[in-house]
Design goal:
nine-stranded antiparallel sheet, 24 strands, alpha+beta
Length: 511
Amino acid sequence: MVRNHIRSKMIEPQCCDDGDEHETLPLPTLPPMPRERVPLQKSSICSRSYFMVVMVFFHVYIINVIVLLLYVHYNNGPGDALVTQKRDEASAGSNHHKPSESHQQPSYSGFQRDMYLPRLEGIRVGHVQKVSLVPDKVHEMRTLSLKPLLFEIPGFLSEEECRVVVQLAQLKGLMESQVMVPEGQEELTEQLNLSPDDIFNLLDLNQDGQLQLEEILTHSRVRDGIWLTPENLREIYAGLKADPDGNGLLSLEEFRSLDSNAFQRFLQQRGVKSSQLVRNSRHTWLYQGKGAHQVLRDLKKRVTRLTRLPSALVDLSEPLQVVRYEQGGHYHAHHDSGPVYPETACTHTRLAANTSTPFETSCRYITVLFYLNSVEGGGETAFPVADNRTYEEVSLIQNDVDLMDTRKNCDKSNLRVNPTKGTAVLWYNYLSDGQGWVGEQDEYSLHGGCVVTRGTKWVANNWINIDPDYQRQARYQQLVSQQGEEDAEDEGEQSQASPEQLHTADPHQEL
């Protein structure tokens, strides 16, 4: 009887223990079961409070999972997903690939948006990740900054490879990296139809109706390639009698009295030393294509694996530039690429651009810099505003302290990379557009070469050229492809050409 009573109690519905009485419903007659029920202890498991706590934690867990998935998706970007998909299809023997609808982009004058640019992940400053660049070896890649996205890879080149590249550059012969810019700015001014008032307004960054020394200095360096200090500019003002009141400011009336080449003529008459140029070095270019030295071809393959970009983009980029800085050599802070506007064409895709565009700029999506020797003194690569909270061009020159002056103020840069033999440094000169292509210029990529105080500095640069205008890049690649087919048809005739003709056709072929 006691056992039956306990059983009847066990199968009564146990509702929330809130103190209310509930009517016991009659139970249906069940056939006898051969096994006994396991007695359950009455508890507060189904209490409303406990239920709410469990549900809150459950929802928090689900939200965290969703956030993590979104983070992985957007940080990998559509380019990574597409590259992974292409690799999977290639391994399965697929010869055709069509992007998924999520990656489909509208056509640009007949060009389907089917190229995407994967970007390396910086994660955080100091983060180290493993990269496989050559067989049977793993390199470590360390994040140096996030603005710009900048990495350092020690041991990218072996000592022997560094020696070979330097020797090939010496055999090719090096030339001065910069000479005085020739006269003749009037033609461009006329083409743009800019009046002195227009130019004044463009230079007057803070629109206060006066030109500060900093505003003039920025313009002069870009246009003339001469590195002027505030003291130099005051000297020129005095020589040209451009600032009668001597306050260091140019009003619109004072600016109108100067013609566009006044500064340049004054400097040419006075003479300009190499130390006053934006860049003081010697350089040459080494061809890395078919027929080049094996070390140069291997280096290009390694860069392709490091950047994870399509090999066609790397192949169509600039040759390897090798640079030598003697003691006293420097390169003041600059951007490897310029912002691209509708009236600006990229140098490498000029063939596919509107020929009426008045400006050209180097569209270097990625810079890979190699140190070919360890410098005895100085020679660091400085990034004055790396990981700065904000970027303002005018604030780079304050109280006669010029952060872009690598002869005087390298120690004030936010980041300096010491030149170590065999080390490579990679950074992005452009942001992503969020759709797997090139976005705006990354102004934080401002960098320069600190003055070499002892010994000699040897470096090399691989630039990956990509036009932010997808249509122009696609048209350019199509034109190059068509030219390649025509060259292949004429291969028989070219094979009979004399060595002198081949040398004239491509100045990089001998190396």
